[in-house]
Amino acid sequence: MHITIIDDSIAYDGNSPMTMPMGGTEKAVASLAPALAKRGHDVCVVNRIEQGAMIDGVSWVPFDAPRPPETDVVICVKKPALLEEFPDVEKKILWMATPAKILNKPKYQALMEKHNPIVVFMGDTHFRTWEPWKYFRKGIVTPGVRNEYLTEAAYEPVTPPRAIVTTNPLHGVDALVDLWVDNIYKQVGGDATLHIYSAGLFKAQNGGEVPEKLKPVFEKVQAAHEHGVLVHKPGSDLEMALVYRSAACHIYPGVETEMYCSTLAETQAIGLPCVARPVGACSERVKNGQTGFLVPDVDSMANVTVHLLTKSASRENMSRDCRMMQRSRTWDVAAAEFEALL
C-alpha cells in the first residue's frame, strides 16, 4: 500500500530523533513511518524539510515539492486543513494530537464533511475530547516508545539523588520550583538537585531573548539555583535515555490538554518512577502505586517525591515494575494498529 504522511509543522526526518530533541508529535511521525515501511508499505512523508531524502525505506519530501504520484491513503497530522492537500485520495486519516473539540468549529466541520476522514486519537482521554455532530469512523492508536528507551541498559540513579522535569515551563514549573525550594530540598538536604530540561529556559539562561510570558518562570528558576535547581538543553533520544537512567524520579505536573505525555511514556519504559497529577493523559501513562504516584495537586507532590529521592529500596521496586509493565508499547505494535485502520 502507498501511504503518505503529511505534516506542515517543522523540518525533520527519520534521523532527527537520533540527533536532536523533538516534540512528541513530530517524533511519532518519524517513528511510525519506518515502522510502516518495515511492514511492507511504500511510505512517503511530506513535511518542511528543505531537501528530500530516503531514510530507512521512507521517502522524505519537502512540502513545496510535487506530491507523490501514487497514494492509496494519506495520514494528515494534527491539522484538518491538510485534508485538502490530496483532493483525489479517497481514504484519509486525521491523526489528532491535541484535544479534538476544535473539529466542531464551523470551518473544520466543513472540511470533515467534505473528506470524511478516519479520526485517530492517542488514547482514551483523547478520544473523550470529541463529541461529533454526525458519525465519523474513529480509532485509538497510542504512540509507541522508541528503542532507545527499551534497551536492557541498567537503571542506575546517581548519588546525590536527582529529580528531573521535562514539562513545558508554563505548565506548572513555577509552582514546582517553589515546592522544591520551600519543602522538598529542605527535607532531602545534602546535594540533591532538580534538573529542568527546557529549550526555552536553557536559551534564556545562555543570553537568549526571554519571551515575556516566560520571564516569571525564568526568574524563579534562576533564583533557585542555590537550592540545587539546574537547567539543561534537551537532547536526542539516546542522550535523554542516559539522563533518565541516572535520575531518582521524574516529576511531571501535567495539564488537562496533554493527550499523550511522550516523555512520561519514555521515562516509565526506562524504569524511572514518577510523580504526576492525574490530569490529561497522565493516568494512562502511570500505574499509580506501582510505577509511580498520581497525586491530586502540586502541593501533594512533596512527600512522595522525598520518598523516591531517599528510599532506594522502594524506588528500585517501582523501577522494576516500570520495566515489567511499561515496555510493551513499541512502534511495531502501533504501526500494526494503524495498518488495521487502513
Summarize this structure as a short list of keywords or feature phrases:
single chain, 342 residues, alpha/beta, Rossmann fold, 2 domains, 8-stranded mixed β-sheet, 6-stranded parallel β-sheet, 12 helices, globular
Indicate the topology:
Blueprint: E1 2-6, H1 24-38, E2 42-47, E3 53-55, E4 58-62, E5 73-77, E6 91-95, H2 106-115, E7 118-121, H3 124-127, E8 138-140, E9 162-165, H4 173-188, E10 193-197, H5 199-205, H6 215-223, E11 229-232, H7 237-246, E12 249-252, H8 262-270, E13 274-276, H9 282-285, E14 292-294, H10 301-310, H11 312-325, H12 331-341
Parallel strand pairs: 1-2, 1-5, 2-4, 5-6, 6-7, 7-8, 9-10, 9-12, 10-11, 12-13, 13-14
Antiparallel strand pairs: 3-4
Helix pairs in contact: 1-12, 4-6, 4-10
Biggest sheet statistics: 8 strands, mixed
Question: What is the name of the CATH topology of the largest domain?
Answer: Rossmann fold
Give the total of beta strands: 14
Order of strands, widest sheet: 3-4-2-1-5-6-7-8
User: Nearest-angstrom radius of gyration?
Assistant: 21 Å
Find the structural class using helix and strand composition. Answer: alpha/beta
Helix content: 25-40%
What does this structure look like?
With 342 residues, this protein is an alpha/beta fold. The protein folds into 2 domains: 2-145 and 330-341, Glycogen Phosphorylase B (Rossmann fold, 3-Layer(aba) Sandwich); 148-325, Rossmann fold, CATH 3.40.50.2000. The chain is built from 12 helices and 14 strands. Helix 4 links the parallel strand 9 and strand 10 (193-197). 46% of the residues are buried.
